[in-house]
From TrEMBL:
Belongs to the TRAFAC class translation factor GTPase superfamily. Classic translation factor GTPase family. EF-Tu/EF-1A subfamily. It holds the Pfam family GTP_EFTU. SMART domains: ZnF_RBZ. This protein promotes the GTP-dependent binding of aminoacyl-tRNA to the A-site of ribosomes during protein biosynthesis. Residues 99-167, 183-204 are annotated as: Disordered. Residues 141-153, 191-204 have a biased composition (Polar residues). InterPro entries: EFTu-like_2, GTP-eEF1A_C, P-loop_NTPase, T_Tr_GTP-bd_dom, TRAFAC_GTPase_members, Transl_B-barrel_sf, Transl_elong_EF1A/Init_IF2_C, Znf_RanBP2. PANTHER family: TRANSLATION FACTOR. This is Tr-type G domain-containing protein. Residues 245-474 form the Tr-type G domain. It comes from Urochloa decumbens. The keyword Lipid metabolism does not apply. The lineage of its organism: Eukaryota, Viridiplantae, Streptophyta, Embryophyta, Tracheophyta.
Amino acid sequence: MPRKVVSGPDYDDDYDDYDEYDDDYVEYDDTEYDNDQHPVKTVKESSKKPASMVPVHWACSMCTFNNHESMTYCEMCGVFRETFVKSAKDGSLKDAVSAVSSEPRASAMPKADSAKTPMKTRAVDSDGDSARKHANMSCDKANSTQLPSSGSSLGAEKKKKTPVLSEEIPVERTALLVPDHFQLKGDHSGGASSSSQNDYVTQKLSSDISQLNVDKTNVNVTKPCLPEEYKPEKWMLADQESGVLSQLNLAIVGHVDSGKSTLSGRLLHLLGRISRKDMHKNEKESKEKGKGSFAFAWAMDESSEERERGVTMTVGVAYLETKKYRVVLLDSPGHKDFVPNMISGATQADAAILVVDASTGSFEAGMDGEGGKSVGQTKEHAQLIRSFGVEQLVVAVNKMDAVAYSKERFEFIKLQLGSFLRSCNFKDSAIAWIPLSAVENQNLIKPPSDARLTSWYQGFCLLDAIDSLQLPSRDVTKPLILPICDVIKSQSTGQLAAFGKLETGAIQNGSKVLVLPCGLEATVKSIERDTNPCSIARAGDNVAVNLQGIDGNQLIPGGVLCHPGFPVAVANHLELKILVLDITIPILVGSQVEFHIHHVKEAARVTKIIALLDKTGKPSKSVPRFLKSKQNAVVQVMLDGAVCVQEFSKNRALGRAYLRSSGRTIAVGVVNRVIGQDEN
């Protein structure tokens, strides 16, 4: 479970030695109290103290430190005891101050000599000057610290006790309870204080204490940092004159066996990102296993399990450069069993390539599923990509060689898929249609050479279509947010590093970051972009961040690196605004779902259906009992575990959510409100 971000109280270094608490500690027997007598002092001795004796303490309402009954302020943080403040407000402090000031020992003692008198408290065991130092420090803290309100549990005692001080405690101890401007003024000549002087001191002390801001509404509480208060430093702003290519995060999505990995591997090979040695090795090994056509796909599918099964299981990351961009390829799995992995990786995308198999029967399976009984991954991936916020799409109609580069087949696919993409709110102007063949290297990085294709197509090749994409806006003026996609081993240091895309802000070597959900601060030791070290990374960059000052086990996929002054919420109770997709079983209150957000998933249940939304977003007056296909609604969900999350209005990357059930995506939406934070 996540720990609290807020740390505990800041204790003074001089009190780190806990042995001081055992030396000459004074305890009072609560059975010896009487209306006219002071409590009887008993020195702590385990051999003489009865087993049933329990010391009387009161807990500070600010730091919960247990103080002795005789103390009127907290020895740890300096906050006044609540009954002491209340008695000052209603005038009942007069008797207590008069009793203290009229004691012969205390009043006759000159103030200059009082510091030399040994007091049987832990503060003077070490040094009298140290006691004065810490007492004054406590008084300073009391002036700036919120006092407990009169309505608290401590103030609800049926019998209010007047503060009584022991005979053994000199006046200086009492004087140190309050600041200098209302300290008790005894007779320095050594005589007893007059009654008129006591009355004046009592009135002044009561009036000064009553002027303290006891009301909660008047307490000067530091406001939490707001994003609009954040001001970026100069180094965070992008250098337009550096000449470095802009980074474009490009997701490769589509139905299983549509040729996504083969297309990615062929692009990398043509652009010189795969060496001849590695390519020869892949060709040899794929032929030995009877999968010669998988040679280019194995450039992306590197694990033995992926190669054995012949399907991509996790999101593969590769890098290439075009004339305009430094492209990060996110090769996503197409099999329906690995859609959660696709969601985790493709959420980083700025744009996407939707790969479609033009073969007869394969395109139809990607649209309607096996036998037309379910939704294929072509449809599901298109819906998910749009819900990620991707607005620009390149539709790569692959395997055109299998249909003899037929124009009719291409137009049929464009008509069928185009109408569905428009229903997903893709604009026609933001969609590029590219016929190609990855195996035969047609229309990838240069215009096609096959006459069957050039006879009717004269448009962009795939590489030119990538360069035609526009970068989304990068917000470096907001606080740092870096969702952790994966935890990898750094190639430069060999240590665990957090890998992900900077959504907002910037980061450099030496920056302080807050690691969530563990709530620990760390320092950036090094940054890697495309396996190359760099000193600064800005919003939009995919980087591996190596941290120091934290155990690598605290870094988990689904966590977040953020600015220490602007922490991300960690919550398990959320309100969502969702769009229900094509479902056969309605969504009910209590429905168990799989909740996905950025790079993490959690088991969850729908706890409340608040309202349906019409096309304008206006909620309905009646509360529905269930949700069905194509409905927009506001619901509440409770997660089994807390996740790092933000409202969509504050941060889009941490505010997009997806609900899945029975291996299918049943709803997509955004976080409307964070209801509850998990503080365990």
